[in-house]
Amino acid sequence: MSKPKILLTRKWPEEAESKAKELFDVTLNEDDHKMSVEELQDAMKNYDAVCPTVSDFQINSEILNVENRRCKLLANFGVGFNNIDTDAAKEAGVVVTNTPEVLTDCTADIAMTLLLMVSRRAAEGERLIRNKQWDGWCPTHFLASKPTGKKLGFIGFGRIAQAVAQKAHFGFGMQISFYDPYPPSDEVIKKYSATKFDTVEEVLKDADYVTLHCPGGGANTNLMNAERFAMMKNTAFLINTARGDVVDEPALVQALKDGAIAGAGLDVFAKEPNVTEDLLTMDNVVMLPHLGSATTETRVAMGLRSLGNVEQFFNDEEPGDRVA
Ligand code: DGY
Q: Which one of 83, 107, 213, 269 would you pick to mutate in the ligand 1 pocket, going by the greatest count of ligand atoms within 8 A of its CB?
């Protein structure tokens, strides 16, 4: 039997691409360009499976509903899959999978990195040294906010959030609270001595740090809006490693300008790779270029996980990470 023909829409780490070559008749994106809508439409006609990712154009009905579509599986490289219109995929009868678990720790590490950096003014301090502006130590220099023992509130308390709670609670003695429409078991709640709130608002009013861990798109678009920023403590920080569209960026800028909140640590943005201009000039904002899962170990594991789903699908098994 001939091997399934698959396309990786972006360049993957070498180890994962080698595995793809071993298992499938694979086409790589050698120059790592962002594929056009036309290229993605052609991919639908020419491949049995496509492995897309977060920075692609969204795979929607315009792309899926090409004539003579051959593609039966979208094996996403990434845990978040808002780059795929899952309703359109379902309607077209195309299966969708993602890559959970393998990026949990690394994404949680980046949430902690942002929390510590913005709280302790680490990026500001580093800029000071690089700009040769440091005059030396003094008792009042660069005073910041102490994270140890403070209240950390989660919007969404799934796998990545729990990994953040593990580090923050047991490493930094932080007090955990969360809102999640699908809360975890009592055992998990007990493990982190967490407070479960019934609304987003209760978390926002209570927390010294608010960290976002809900999916992007749909009802979560602009979940953090002007009204909700106004509910946060003016000493509190916002951390976002989820999806950029969960935050209304102009409202965030206004909240920072008004001093409604103390600062923000952002790994994701509403219109990546474009970043709202005002944020670039704010010292109390720390920004990273969507690095959550960006370690060699994790990106290889994501590739292998995506390929595992392709293997299962073409072996007529239910793919382990099917999401639609
Ligand atoms: C994810 O897996 O969702 C990361 O944000 C990269 O896409």
A: 107
